[in-house]
Design goal:
Shape: globular
CATH architecture of the largest domain: 3-Layer(aba) Sandwich
Radius of gyration: 25 Å
Oligomer: single chain
Strand order of the largest sheet: 3-4-9-8-2-7-5-6
Number of domains: 2
Strand content: 5-15%
CATH topology of the largest domain: Alkaline Phosphatase, subunit A
Number of strands: 10
Helix content: 40-55%
Low-confidence stretches: none
Number of helices: 17
Bound molecules: zinc ion
Structural class: alpha/beta
């Protein structure tokens, strides 16, 4: 070995000029490769994952009422990952409502066909933490940009930390373009209302608390839920229903019923253009029991029941035809053998379900979806220009009028 280095040293000294030339060339080549790789990654990130709708694309919506929606209803289900794709026909926990609305699509009584586009291979932003992902979904950029980062990000967002205002939520972008419209947001997990969505005059926000559950149980008045039959239904919902977390189960029910009551009311039908609901029982089951466990499956199935309640309420009011439905989630959960929770980069934590159903949706599965795409998808569907600062795109093959 010693001999080899001695020979090598002698050779370098003998060919000093050539050695320098080789080193310089190698250095330049490495620099060029690194620069090209970075540039490629940048270009791919910015342009290759989907469309930035142009003014012409938006005109096809804004100049033709047949391509317009009365409202977008977003069902945000925390911690579901790609799981719904694994239990579609899994008796007794099949997902009949998810399947009808978001997989098969359906035709309304009015004769409108709502096509469904679904993927179980969407990608969460990293790390797979709730606050970081939901903020990316609402603000259209990855965590280092919106600034909700770090190990305390869930608590920070819940406590009202505001993301970088350079990256507005799709709700703000929509309301800036439609100042008289209204938005309804009902959340079991308060961080989305407290931080991811700006405080704006035309956004009605409700955070469903344990106290709301107590009030229902004790026949007390609760804000945003007046219908006595609904209250009675919720009150009796736990009977015969052994659940992983009865608190979150009931809170999710109240969260959804608030959306139904507000958006199907005489005034709400035309006023609310975006309705968001944030459900937390699947995430709670994941933390307690792990991905793919009985309690986790039951939680996903109970969310399916809630989708059925929304569908039935909208059908009764003749509101299905012009509604765009979205089902989205922030991340999945670890398998139990790796400890419960999320935040890492395993397949079951990173892969997310994204599903959308509406009259301008292309039936099937779209191109690549990442969580930053939610913002531009909603803006596009409502005929509004995406914020220049957003990194998210409208995935290829998701809408009939795009591409
Ligand atoms: Zn989460």
């Amino acid at each position: 070995m010693k001999e080899f280095f001695a020979k090598f040293g002698a050779a370098v000294r003998a060919h000093k000029g050539r050695t320098v030339a080789i080193c310089v060339t190698a250095f330049v080549l490495i620099c060029a490769i690194v620069t090209l790789s970075c540039l490629g990654a940048f270009v791919f990130n910015r342009f290759a994952t989907g469309y930035v709708p142009t003014d012409e694309d938006l005109a096809l919506i804004n100049n033709n009422v047949a391509n317009q929606y009365d409202r977008v209803v977003i069902i945000g289900v925390d911690g579901t990952g790609k799981y719904p794709g694994e239990m579609l026909d899994d008796d007794p926990y099949s997902l009949p409502n998810f399947k009808k609305v978001f997989v098969d699509g359906f035709t309304t009584a009015g004769g409108t066909r709502l096509n469904a586009s679904v993927t179980y291979s969407g990608i969460a932003v990293y790390p797979t933490i709730s606050a970081q992902n939901w903020t990316s979904m609402f603000r259209g950029v990855r965590p280092p940009y919106h600034g909700i980062t770090g190990s305390s990000s869930n608590k920070d967002l819940s406590n009202g930390k505001q993301p970088n205002e350079k990256y507005p939520s799709f709700i703000k972008v929509f309301l800036d373009a439609n100042p008289t419209a209204k938005v309804f947001s009902s959340c079991t997990w308060d961080a989305v209302n407290n931080g991811a969505i700006e405080d704006l005059a035309n956004v009605v926000k409700y955070n469903t608390t344990c106290e709301d559950v107590y009030k229902i149980a004790n026949d007390e008045e609760i804000e945003g839920l007046a219908d006595p039959d609904t209250k009675e239904f919720i009150k009796n919902a736990t009977e015969g229903n052994s659940t992983a977390d009865p608190d979150y189960f009931l809170r999710d029910m109240i969260t959804v019923q608030r959306v139904i009551e507000a958006t199907t009311s005489a005034e709400g039908k035309s006023a609310y253009k975006i309705a968001y609901m944030h459900l937390n029982q699947v995430d709670s089951a994941g933390h307690s029991y792990g991905y793919n466990k009985h309690a986790y499956a039951r939680a996903v199935a109970r969310v399916d029941d809630l989708i059925g309640r929304i569908y039935d309420a909208y059908e009764a009011e003749g509101m299905l035809d012009n509604t765009l439905f979205i089902y989205c989630t922030d991340h999945g959960h670890r398998y139990l053998q790796d400890g419960t929770g999320h935040g890492g980069n395993s397949n079951v934590e990173v892969k997310v379900t994204f599903a959308i159903a509406g009259k301008t949706v292309k039936q099937g599965t779209s191109g690549k979806y990442v969580n930053t795409d939610l913002a531009p998808i909603v803006a596009y569907a409502l005929g509004v220009k995406a914020a220049d600062s957003w990194q998210g795109r409208v995935p290829y093959g998701m809408f009939t009028l795009l591409g």
